Amino acid sequence: MGVTIHDVARAAGVSVASASRALSGRRKVGADVAERVARAVAELGYRPNAVAKALRDRTTGTIGMVVPGIGNPFFTMIVEAVEHQLQRTGVDLLLCASQYTPEVEASRLETLMARRVDGLIISPCDMEGSVPAVLNAARQVPLVQVDRYIEDGGADWVGVDDAQALTLAVDHVVAGGARSVVFVGSRLVNSSARLRLDGFERAAARAGVSVRPPLLGDFTLGWGVEAGRLLLAEDSLPDAVICGNDEIAIGLLRALRLGGVRVPTEVSVVGFDDVGYAAMCDPPLTTVRQPVEAIAAEALRLLGQVRMDDPRPAQRIAIAPRLVVRETSRPVEGVSRDRGAAGAGSTPAGDPT
User: Fold this and answer.
1) Residue 132: DSSP 8-state
2) Which of 93, 104, 146 minimizes the C-alpha distance to 297?
3) Per the record, where are the segments of Basic and acidic residues compositional bias (predicted)?
4) pLDDT of 325-350, one tens digit each?
5) pLDDT value at position 58?
6) Domain 62-160+293-315, what architecture?
7) Exposed, middle or buried: residue 214 (CB in 10 Å: 0-12, 13-18, 19+)?
8) Among the residues of 241-346, which ranges form H helices?
């Protein structure tokens, strides 16, 4: 049997009630009692009973999180950022992956709610198919969406300002001399895919450049390779390719390199996310950095504001991105490599577009 609160009280020479008050922090005890209890806890290796605490406080000290897939480096980054923020609070994270399937996502949400999590953070895998399960969960427990969101609203959202991100990318390649551009992204099954294509088209129209039809597949390395082969099969290459994420961009770079194309001399390539591999590929990838720590902090702040007994209109907060210039884009006068213009703060809004 493990060490109990009775053992701690006995070792500290105090009553069980005093030991409990010292450990909970809800009621003050004398400095001497607090010190003796702390010493007994350390010596005995006592760990509070989480189940008992949950029953007493009506909380579990856990947050559930559902992302489309852990294999995507961006979602790994955002999960780590959320966990890093939670470490400061003593709250634990329960993580699930939806496998990009609304039915699996609904099951994962039910599982986390059955475990009585205190809140949920989710990146919905499908802007339409995820709606019923996300709305159902939001009616039962505080919920915040990150990166992606469902079309019907119903819950707070925080993510990067996709429109600003694509403006940074397009303006950068145009400043480097690009006159024809193409967007390579994902099919429009989630909000990120749609917002990034919309942002690209608007930015390219403002810049007055020639735009080729977009190539849409999925947010994977394999699709990037395939998209690169499709570009190589065309009569001519565009001056620049803007990608929906870094995985696509890295796959595309590989295909172009195997096809004998020199990047950025012949084609500039810009990614999106700034995952760890972006700086390691050859050549290092110019990309738009998502501020994952800021997104995680804002998501948890919003989660703390949700009151099930006092609903309020859903909030959408778009946080400014940063362009990170490396070696896959043509040099622009006044812009140094591996450094870019940072955006200004966050933008509370109705729709981040």
Assistant:
1) H
2) 146
3) 329-340
4) 999 999 886 666 664 333 333 344 44
5) 63
6) 3-Layer(aba) Sandwich (3.40)
7) middle
8) 246-258, 292-305
User: Are residues 254 and 263 in contact, defined by beta-carbon separation less than 8 angstroms?
Assistant: no
CATH classification number, 5-48, choose in 1.20.1250.20, 1.10.260.40, 1.10.3210.10, 1.10.357.10: 1.10.260.40
Angle at 134 between CA 133 and CA 137, to 5 degrees: 85
DSSP for 43-55, written as a single string: HHT----HHHHHH
Amino acid identity of 165?
A
Amino acid at 202: R
Question: When comparing pLDDT for 29 and 112, which is higher?
Answer: 112
Token pair recorded at residue 176? 């480097």
Please tell me the pTM assigned to this model. 0.80
Q: How far apart are CA 353 and CA 346, in angstroms?
A: 13
Tokens read off for 223? 């699709």
What is the b/e burial string over 65-95, where b = at least 16 CB atoms within 10 angstroms of the residue's CB?
Answer: bbbbbeebbbbbbbbebbbebbeeeebebbb
Total number of residues shown for the chain:
353
Distance CA 155, CA 310 (A): 13
Coil/strand/helix, residue 19? helix
Please name the residue ranges forming H helices in the chain. Answer: 5-12, 16-24, 31-44, 50-57, 73-87, 102-114, 131-138, 162-175, 191-207, 221-232, 246-258, 292-305
Domain 162-291+320-349 is classified in which CATH homologous superfamily? Response regulator (3.40.50.2300)
Distances (CA, A) of 286 to 92, 170, 257, 265, 329: 35, 12, 16, 14, 6
